[in-house]
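STRUCTURE REQUEST FORM
Protein name: tyrosinase
Source organism: Penicillium flavigenum
Requested output: structure tokens
Priority: standard
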Amino acid sequence: MPESSEYEYYQIQARFPAKDSNPDDGINRKVFVRQDIDEWSSKKSNKKQVDLFILALDNFQKLDPKERLSYFQVAGIHGQPFVRWDDPSPEPMKNGYCFHSHVIFPIWHRPYVLLFEQVLYDIMVKEVIPQFLEAHQASWRQQAESWRLPFWDWARNGRVPDLAKYPTITVPRPQGGSVRINNPLFQFRMPTDKPMRSEGVGTENTWENDAEQEEYKNFGNAIGTSRWPDEEDQKPTSEGWRHGVVNNRKVADAFNAHEGYNDKNHGPAAEMVYRLLTVPMDYTTFASTNPTSKDQNVDEDLNIEYIHNNIHGWTGAAGHMGNVPVASFDPLFFLHHCNIDRLFAIWQALNPEKWMDNIPVGNATIRDSFGKEHIVNGNTPLQPFRRDAEGNYWTPEGIRFTPNLGYSYPELPRWETKYHQQDGTLNQVLFKENITTIINRLYGVSRDLALDPKAPTPEGVEAIDGGLKIPDFAFSVRFLKYALGGRPFWVKLYLAQEDGIQTPLTDLIAEVYNFSQKPELDGSSVCGNCTKGQKSRVKSTAYIPITPVLYKLIRGGRKLKSLTRDEVLAYIQKRAYWRNEKELPRYEVEKLELEIIGSSNDTKHFTNPATPPAFENFKKEPTITGGADGALDPELKQPKIDPPAPRPRRPRANLPLHGSLQFQQTLKADSVILIESSSVDPVKPDDGVDMTQISIMDAKNDIIFHISIRRAQDQIIFNSKLGGSWGEEERIDIARRFDSEDGATILIHDQGEGFEVSIDWVHAIWFAKRAQGTAPQSIQYDLWNKEGTSALSEDLEVRTYPSMKALFLQKHAHEEEK
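Status: completed
Returned output:
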């Protein structure tokens, strides 16, 4: 790690209560608690803390994106803009910081959330509280000292937190009274009012084919974050996408679309969390979607990361939270990860002896941002999180126990004397019983259904001492994580209500989100772990318990009469089907190497809430196991069709203002360069200096064709610059050109001896070539006055075609597809 004697690192350090927190108590020392955001914010006694939180977050988001401790830069650690954070090294990034599909996943995010919490605390005490009257500052500071970042328990409430629902929120004025401000939990907006591309977010593109381009979302165009944007608002050039669209109602709809997982006491992810915290497993299974072995058991498909992934998909969809490189810009990201950290801490308390042992071969090493390889163990550096002034990084061992970091969670009050034995040590049995009682109450969907005294017990359920033994059923889902190039996608599971009839809206019982990203951007690796996973064909795993669904089917009279193994397997075999969210054709699904593995086990639930459930005899069920065909019953399977012949590659790219692009194909006579702008600004500049310039360059960097749009002169100028000298200008009036402010198309057709230019598909000029025998090599987009504004959009979409005929064939084919 390069060092700088003058550089001052930002130290992430624990904060402890000033009283009653004895360091000698170790992990049993008293610390302040992170609370459920809805419960915390609804209590009048917490009003000052809530106000401090909102005011500090508002200040945080308004900091200049170039500042190290700005919201933009802290959020950017997770993905884009893929630059170093808190590191003086000039060496470019060789790998991103964040880890997914790896045993480091929950470990790395712990200091990340702690950093976010600490920056907010610093803003509270240094910026917010000093604005209040001096006589009141002591009480505000007391609230700040005990404040910890709240968590969003989406497993209990399948919706956004109450504090994040609305675009504005009321906060106190420091000198008295109150005021409504933009809600910083509703959305993050760039404080500069410039697109995120201005600070490096968004690909500079890549010459992609049509299919890839359909999925391409240019987050660089966004000024504000989006949640569940409509199809129209997903277009990178739309105003909705630019300013951000927040559809919190659709978030709730996505969470609650699953048969059997929702009731008044539980959210849609409750049963998944219940299994995570009660099924025995090692840390390496718990931590990641990455399989521990090629032939692992079905119960080893259960992990915290797939649950985490689903929350990202349900919350963001095509918006920010649903996409790895930009997910952390959504303010809900840190509340979500605070809950992931909480589940991790609860699991650790129930399994204190389990840690980073028996690391799978594929996870045995990681590469840091400098490309250096590290063995994965308790001393692996967690970049970029510094723990001291010398710049040493936090390590897995250093962040293993949350009390050592100055916080805990409501379920884990280790300092309470009722959990202590006479010698002062923690009574593990009593402590775990309390945790189990809470887990059973909050998340035990299948337990509540099985032990419901008001409902009849279905056939197949057996009474045992202190409880019931029930047949339990699940689907494991396995697929190649990077089969679609790292693109996010859903795998959806259904149970048909009628034999052979698909009604997806009502048949949906579960889904699994592939939360991933492209391993490379513009030819460079941005995620070394992703690149490694893609090359090794790593799979993602998930485990979906479906017994709650079966209970509701039985009690709803849906033709399932019992929980006996034979009847359940026959029912599922006849009715189960699965699809990719976009109904990919079967030949595309086959690329995923998708496995849907049905399984069963014997589960014991006990009436004593302090007794954990017991899961035994896990086994695969071949009769309810399938793959790319999409179903078990022939009537529900996807038809097998041949893939279409590959379409000719149509290069296209995003050309940012002040940027240039190399053409990837040799452009000869009859070739076409198509330039599209998403907007047109006809307003003349005040200073009279105005040149929006598009230049076509050859291999010598001579400008063989130049377009200059000059609004101040009401003209468009065409020229060339050969050997350093400009030629004679050719001009046309700008009047009747670029009539629509919604966008413009400039077509440059190489006709051998000259270029024909059309604007919005209308002939504008024929320009004779002044350098014969030279071919276009690159295109440049710039302003003569760097401080000015462009007549066109900040990004131009560039496409090239080998001929005019190819352009119209492609255009016609694309319109037919629509």
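Reviewer notes: Residues 480 and 538 are 6 Å apart (CA to CA). Confidence is low (pLDDT under 50) at residues 204-216, 813-818.
Form closed.
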